[in-house]
Amino acid sequence: VVKLLSNKRSQAVGILMSSLHLDMKDIQHAVVNLDNSVVDLETLQALYENRAQSDELEKIEKHGRSSKDKENAKSLDKPEQFLYELSLIPNFSERVFCILFQSTFSESICSIHRKLELLQKLCETLKNGPGVMQVLGLVLAFGNYMNGGNKTRGQADGFGLDILPKLKDVKSSDNSRSLLSYIVSYYLRNFDEDAGKEQCLFPLPEPQDLFQASQMKFEDFQKDLRKLKKDLKGVELHVGYSPRKL
Predict the structure, then answer these.
(1) Contact between residue 49 and residue 85 where contact means Cβ atoms under 8 Å apart
(2) Which of 19, 158, 168, 209 ranks highest by number of CB atoms within 10 Å?
């Protein structure tokens, strides 16, 4: 047999072939008719990623032309033959690209939208939430009281957010209580009428939401949107359709 692929590439295609357990006609039916009942999206993704590249396909087709009229011509090795048959499916790359994009587009947009909604909700809560303002007001009031005798720091009009993690490190004279626990207990006694009851609500954003939002980067959002726009452009080129802009 004729081997035109590198050993590594031939091995990768061979592994894919052995894992499929599908006839080429099943693959063609799935691609042409957008039917995922037999060939699932994961398999289509693997086929798309392992499809013959232009230089490989050129070598395969060149061999086919040169051996067409020869009686004792050697046949292609199985991986080469598989890639060639795959290339015979009408518009294989374009069709599979569109199928895969269609399957992930809504999920990708929803994922970005959920993250931005969470970020917007947290920003609104931190800016306008009465519980947040009351807690921060207590931090400022107690800080002003404790620094009352200090001309430099007494009666400050505000404070840096970097001091918030340090509240737990400020201890009482007997070292039994932190300033953080005192502020929490003071808030519960004087501001929260439902403290200790079932209807009591946490006055600040949920810690897991804050953590999730702290991990978000606008560069990642921009990167994801650029990829979606690029893929949308690819769909437009493949099928001659111009989707609405993101």
Answers:
(1) no
(2) 209
